[in-house]
Description:
Layout lengths: L3 H26 L5 H32 L19 H25 L8 H23 L2 H6 L5
Helix pairs in contact: 1-2, 1-3, 2-4, 3-4
Amino acid sequence: xxxxxxxxxxxxxxxxxxxxxxxxxxxxxxxxxxxxxxxxxxxxxxxxxxxxxxxxxxxxxxxxxxxxxxxxxxxxxxxxxxxxxxxxxxxxxxxxxxxxxxxxxxxxxxxxxxxxxxxxxxxxxxxxxxxxxxxxxxxxxxxxxxxxxxxxxx
Length: 154
């Protein structure tokens, strides 16, 4: 595999996005939010933890192929401003999920002509997509006053 280094960089980028996402989800769950939303975010946190662990295992397997110690650049994280508006936090979490999906697309393009089994990567992408859809639905449920009265409450 001639593009192992690029694949490893992409795997590390996804791992870091999951790590950042866990921090954001933890901060969101500290807020006063409805039980149903707390359940959704805690499930999202657990899934991110599992997928992050699987990406770490994937990285370890690739690192063995490289032979030398490789430390990728530290870019690839997302910044989240602390906010009190839970709807905005949910929207930012959904945007971060979409960023993770985009990074998976890049990774899948990189491993296309290799001997790497991409089934788990496709499963990860599908799971993150489902979580994003649920977050968007939950976000829409939080806007009843806006839909009923035609204005955005501040």
